[in-house]
C-alpha cells in the first residue's frame, strides 16, 4: 500500500503526548495501516524504537534487523514483556484482545505506573476497543484525523503509478470529474480507496467518468456497513410536495448560502445548519427531508436514533460520534434524523435519562460548532418528550410546524397523487375532493386515491372518477377525528414555538 505523509496535527499531538508522559493511548479506528505509519513517523521524530504486535509474530521491533521477543504472540506474554522491559519505546498493539481478567488488568496498571516515569508508550487501536472500567481512566483517547484532500490525491497518484507498472493505465478525468471523485473518496479509509480504485482500473485499464458510479456505490456500502446511517435513494422533488409554501420559500432562500458556504461567510451570513420539523403524522415531514436532498442534489443520510443506543457505558455517545463523522465525510450532505425525540427524549420509551442527556449534549454541541456542510433535518411527532434545550433559539435555524393541510393544499395533494398514478388532475373535481377531505392528512389523501384505484381496477370500465375517491373518503375516519385531542394540544403548543410551514 502506498504511504502518505501523516496528518501534521496528529504528529504534533502525538509528540506532545510522548513528551508529556502519557503512557497509554487508545485510537478507535479500523485504519491500522495508516496509524502504523503515523506512529513510525512519530517514533523517528522523537527518536524512540517502535514495536508492533500481532497475534502470530508477537512483538517485533520495526528496524531492518528487528528483534522479536519470543512467545509474545500470546497477549499475556506480550504484556509481561512490556512491563518487565520497561523500555523507552512505542508499543503498537492493534486489535489486541480484550484486557479482561485480574492478571491483565493488574499488568496494565503496573505498565501505566512504570511508563509514566519516562517516554515509553503503549498504543491500542481497533474499531471498538472495550476497556474494563478500572482501566478506562488510564487511557488517553486520541482521534486519527481523516486524511487531507492532498493525502488522498497523493495516495491515488502513487497507487496508479504502482498499477501502471503491471498494466497499461489510462486516466481520463476532467477537472470536474476529479473533484467528484475525490469528494466521493473523502471519508473512506486508504485501504478502502486502494481496493476500490484498483478494481476500477484493473477492470478496463482506465479510470474515467464511468468509474464514478462504482466508487459512489462502494462508498454507500461503507456508510451502511456502519449500521448507524442509511443511505437513502431519493426521487422526490419539492414540486411533489403540496403546500408548505413558507417552508419551501425558506429552503429556496437558504440553498445558495448552504451550497457556497465560503461566500456566505464573507458576505456576513452563517451557513444554514438545519431545521426541526414538528407536526401531525402523515403531513409531509419525511417527504420534505427527501425533497430537500433531491432539490439541492445532495446525498441523503438517515440516522435511526434507535440504533445509537447500546448497553455498554459510553458506547452510545461513541455511536453518535461515529455517525456524525461518517456524515461529515460525505459532506455536503443532508442528514435526516427521523423522530429525534427517540434519541434525545426525556420521557418514557426513551433510553435512561443519563445517556439521552449526554447524547443530547454532544449533539447540540456539534450542531453549534459544526463546520462541515451537513444540513440537518430533524423531525418529531411527539412533543411531550422533546427536551427544551433542543428548541432554544440558535440550535436549529428554524422550527416549523407542519399542520393538517388546508383546503387549497388538499387540492394540490390530490393533484400530485393523481398525476403520480397517470391520471389527469383536470379530469377530477378537485374542489369537491378537498371539501370532502377536511381533516385528512396527506398520507390519508394518498391512501384514499390508492384505494379508489383498486376499486376502479376491479370494475369493468376501469376508469377512475371523482365519485370513486369521494366514496373512499366517506368511509375513512381520519386521524383528526380519532386523535382530535392530541392534534389540538399539539397545535396549541406549536403556536407559541414554531413557524407554520404552510
Ligand atoms: N404535502 C404533501 N404533499 C404531497 N404528498 C404528501 C404531503 N403530505 C403527505 N403526503 C403523502 O403522505 C406520505 C406520508 O407522508 P410523510 O411520511 O412525509 O409524513 P410524516 O409527516 O413524516 O409522518 P410521520 O410523522 O408519520 O412520520 C408521503 O409519502 C406522501 O405521499
Ligand atoms: Mg415521517
Would you give an account of this structure?
Helix content is 50%, strand content 13%. With 502 residues, the protein is of the alpha/beta class. The chain has helices spanning 8-19, 32-46, 75-85, 101-115, 149-164, 175-185, 190-204, 209-225, 245-259, 261-267, 285-295, 315-329, 341-344, 353-369, 388-391, 407-420, 430-436, 442-458, 466-474, 479-482, 484-497; strands at residues 24-28, 50-54, 58-61, 90-94, 121-126, 140-142, 170-172, 206-208, 229-232, 274-279, 300-303, 333-337, 374-380, 398-402, 499-500. The strands form three sheets. It has a seven-stranded mixed sheet with strand order 9-11-12-13-10-14-15, sandwiched between helices. The protein folds into four domains: 8-142, Rossmann fold (3-Layer(aba) Sandwich), CATH 3.40.50.300; 149-225; 238-402, 3-Layer(aba) Sandwich (Rossmann fold), CATH 3.40.50.300; 407-482, Helicase, Ruva Protein, domain 3 (Orthogonal Bundle). The two termini are 55 Å apart. It has 21 helices and 15 strands. Adenosine-5'-triphosphate binds next to helix 11, helix 16 and helix 18.
Features:
single chain, 502 residues, alpha/beta, Rossmann fold, 4 domains, seven-stranded mixed sheet, six-stranded mixed sheet, 50% helix, elongated, binds adenosine-5'-triphosphate, binds magnesium ion
Query: What is the count of helical runs?
Result: 21
Q: How many domains in all?
A: 4
Largest sheet: 7 strands, mixed
Q: Would you tell me the structural class of the helices and strands? A: alpha/beta
Instruction: Specify the CATH architecture of the largest domain.
Output: 3-Layer(aba) Sandwich
Q: Report the average pLDDT across residues.
A: 88
Poorly predicted residue ranges: none
Q: What hetero molecules are in the model?
A: adenosine-5'-triphosphate, magnesium ion
Euclidean distance between termini CA atoms? 55 Å
Described by the principal axes of the CA atoms, the overall outline is elongated
Total strands: the figure is: 15
CATH homologous superfamily grouping of the largest domain: P-loop containing nucleotide triphosphate hydrolases
CATH topology grouping of the largest domain: Rossmann fold
Amino acid at each position: 500500500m502506498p504511504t502518505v505523509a501523516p496528518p501534521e496535527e496528529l504528529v504534533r499531538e502525538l509528540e506532545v503526548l510522548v513528551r508529556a508522559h502519557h503512557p497509554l493511548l487508545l485510537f478507535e479506528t479500523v485504519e491500522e495501516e495508516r496509524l502504523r505509519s503515523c506512529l513510525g513517523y512519530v517514533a523517528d521524530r522523537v527518536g524512540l524504537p517502535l514495536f508492533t504486535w500481532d497475534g502470530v509474530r508477537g512483538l517485533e521491533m520495526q528496524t531492518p534487523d528487528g528483534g522479536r521477543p519470543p512467545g509474545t504472540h500470546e497477549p499475556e506474554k506480550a504484556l509481561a514483556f512490556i512491563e518487565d522491559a520497561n523500555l523507552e519505546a512505542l508499543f503498537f498493539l492493534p486489535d489486541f484482545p480484550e484486557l479482561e481478567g485480574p492478571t491483565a488488568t493488574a499488568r496494565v496498571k503496573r505498565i501505566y505506573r512504570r511508563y509514566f516515569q519516562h517516554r515509553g508508550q503503549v498504543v491500542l487501536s481497533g474499531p471498538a476497543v472495550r476497556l474494563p472500567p478500572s482501566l478506562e481512566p488510564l487511557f488517553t483517547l486520541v482521534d486519527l484525523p481523516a486524511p487531507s484532500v492532498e493525502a488522498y490525491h497523493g495516495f491515488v497518484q502513487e497507487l496508479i503509478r504502482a498499477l501502471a507498472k503491471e498494466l497499461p493505465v489510462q486516466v481520463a478525468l476532467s477537472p470536474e470529474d476529479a473533484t467528484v471523485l475525490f469528494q466521493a473518496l473523502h471519508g473512506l479509509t486508504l485501504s478502502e480507496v486502494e481496493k476500490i480504485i484498483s478494481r476500477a482500473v484493473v477492470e478496463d485499464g482506465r479510470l474515467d467518468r464511468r468509474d464514478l458510479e462504482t466508487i459512489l456505490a462502494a462508498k454507500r456500502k461503507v456508510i451502511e456497513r456502519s449500521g448507524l446511517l442509511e443511505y437513502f435513494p431519493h426521487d422526490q422533488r419539492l414540486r411533489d410536495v403540496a403546500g408548505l409554501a413558507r417552508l419551501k420559500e425558506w429552503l429556496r432562500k437558504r440553498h445558495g448560502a448552504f451550497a457556497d458556504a465560503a461566500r456566505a461567510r464573507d458576505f456576513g451570513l452563517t451557513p444554514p445548519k438545519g431545521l426541526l420539523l414538528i407536526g401531525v403524522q402523515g403531513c409531509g415531514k419525511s417527504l420534505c427531508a427527501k425533497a430537500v436532498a433531491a432539490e439541492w442534489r445532495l446525498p441523503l443520510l438517515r440516522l435511526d436514533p434507535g440504533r445509537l443506543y447500546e448497553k455498554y457505558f459510553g458506547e452510545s455517545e461513541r455511536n453518535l460520534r461515529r455517525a456524525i463523522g461518517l456524515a461529515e465525510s460525505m459532506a455536503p450532505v443532508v442528514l435526516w434524523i427521523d423522530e429525534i425525540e427517540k434519541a434525545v427524549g426525556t420521557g418514557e420509551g426513551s433510553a435512561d435519562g443519563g445517556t439521552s442527556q449526554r447524547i443530547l449534549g454532544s449533539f447540540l454541541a456539534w450542531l453549534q460548532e459544526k463546520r462541515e456542510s451537513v444540513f440537518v433535518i430533524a423531525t418529531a411527532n411527539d412533543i411531550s418528550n422533546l427536551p427544551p434545550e433542543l428548541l432554544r433559539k440558535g440550535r436549529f435555524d428554524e422550527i416549523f410546524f407542519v399542520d393538517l393541510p388546508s383546503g387549497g393544499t388538499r387540492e394540490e395533494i390530490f393533484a400530485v397523487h393523481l398525476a403520480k398514478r397517470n391520471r389527469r388532475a383536470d379530469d377530477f373535481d378537485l374542489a369537491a375532493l378537498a371539501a370532502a377531505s377536511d381533516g385528512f392528512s396527506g398520507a390519508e389523501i394518498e391512501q384514499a386515491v390508492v384505494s379508489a384505484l383498486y376499486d376502479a381496477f376491479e370494475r369493468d370500465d376501469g376508469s377512475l372518477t371523482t365519485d370513486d375517491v369521494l366514496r373512499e373518503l366517506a368511509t375513512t375516519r381520519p386521524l383528526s377525528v380519532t386523535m382530535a385531542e392530541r392534534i389540538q394540544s399539539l397545535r396549541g403548543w406549536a403556536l407559541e414555538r414554531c413557524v407554520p410551514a404552510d
